[in-house]
Structure formats: C-alpha cells, structure tokens
C-alpha cells in the first residue's frame, strides 16, 4: 500500500471526525477542528491511500514560537504501519525548517503508555505533568522535542484552552 500525505481539505472532515471518535474517549468537536484548520492550514495533514481514503491525520498549530501538536490519530485498522511516524516526521520537518520553531510540543494522557513510548522513541521528553488536564480529571504529560542545534533552553509557552 502506498501512503501519501497532503494538506487537509474540507471533504476530509467527516473521515477525520470518524477517526477522532474511534481514537479518543473525548473527541474534538467539528467546530474546533475547523477552527484549528483555519488557524494553521499547513499544520493539518492527512495520510491517504492510493484511492484518497483518509487513514490518519495530524493537527498542529503555531503557538509562542513552538509547534503544538493538538491531535494525531490513525484509523484503528491501519495502526502499526508507520503512518503516525510519517505524519509526525512531516510536521516536525515542516515546522523546524519553514518556521524555525524551537520545539514541537504536545500533551498525552499520563496513562497512555503506548503513545508515550511512541513519542519517547521519536526523541520527545517529559517536560511537566499537567494535573487534571482532561475533562474527566485525568492528568496529562507535556512532552517536547527540541530542534536540533538549539544551543540554549528557551521557555515553553502553550495555550491551555
């Protein structure tokens, strides 16, 4: 199977919402996904097969000189095939190169060890525990990946909407 990445199109919305729903206990609503796309269109990528069927997506925004991965998910039937790596590689390369961001940041549920291991393998590190971050009162971990060659530590600011 050939997997291609491209920017999100309005016609992808229902499929993205479907993957979001199957991937998370509390999925983002349609209006928020649309808003994030309008805020940073080049940070919203989809992975598609040869027929254009959406297999996964990543939503990233620029915040305070950093790239903030808001959501990344792959259809449950296509996981463990490298799609998440392709999406994250593309976002990291784009934001580190085009925008010269200092960090890529994201939050992950503290209990989601599978996702945390995925990010650790990709060079992310724990920055801070975010207590009661999720609607159900669960904690998150703020994870960061520093741009290669960054000579000093810079403060990290993120919007905690």
Automatic annotation (TrEMBL):
Coiled-coil positions: none
Record's keyword terms, sorted: Acyltransferase, Transferase
PROSITE patterns on file: GNAT
Domain N-acetyltransferase positions: 3-148
SUPFAM superfamilies named among the record's database cross-references: Acyl-CoA N-acyltransferases (Nat) (SSF55729)
Pfam families for the chain: Acetyltransf_1 (PF00583)
GO annotation, cellular component aspect: NatA complex
Gene3D superfamilies: 3.40.630.30
One Gene Ontology molecular-function label: protein-N-terminal amino-acid acetyltransferase activity
Protein's name according to its UniProt entry: Ribosomal-protein-alanine acetyltransferase
Record organism: Methanococcus voltae (strain ATCC BAA-1334 / A3)
